[in-house]
Amino acid sequence: MKTLVAYYSLDGNTAFIAQIIAEKLGAELVRLEPVKPYPTKGFKKFFIGGMSAVCKAAPKLKNDNINTAAYDNIVLGSPVWAGTFAPPLNTLLKKQSIKGKKLAFFLCSGSGDAAKCLASLKTALEGNTYVGEIDFAEPLKNGKEEAGHKAAVWAETLGF
Known about the structure:
This protein has one domain: Flavodoxin domain (Rossmann fold). It has 5 helices and 6 strands; from the N terminus they run βαβαββαβαβα. The protein has helices at about 15-25, 40-55, 85-95, 115-125, 145-155; strands at about 5, 30, 75-80, 85, 100-110, 130-135. Strand 5, helix 4 and strand 6 (about 130-135) form a beta-alpha-beta unit. Helix 1 crosses helix 5 (about 145-155). The longest helix is centred in the last third of the chain and has 14 residues, at about 145-155. The protein starts with a strand and ends with a helix.
């Protein structure tokens, strides 16, 4: 069975966790990269990112040719922005019909809105089997080694 780990990361937290999960699962790793990057500092980072998330923006991606039909298992990762997932995931979900898959989700946040974000993901991806979910509080700042271990152990529980 083929497994895909697809994620978006602004500050590196989600990328860090995605790499560990993909390695543990022997999965293909795909970073969703917007053509126009989001700001990484100051007021613009939160304003533009938050507004894009709330408005369900779907930015054009550099790598928009991902074929999710080729995978049996998909793990999606995102930072939590304004209580929901980052806009590059909207692009993936709008371009791909993801049905009948085994799905797992991981989130990285500083706000603790993971439950609301997970509910949004499940609503957007109805018609699939959910096998796991986990969230991390800024793993690069709050115990990188511990978060890495937590991600590896979680990946093993997915049964892919």
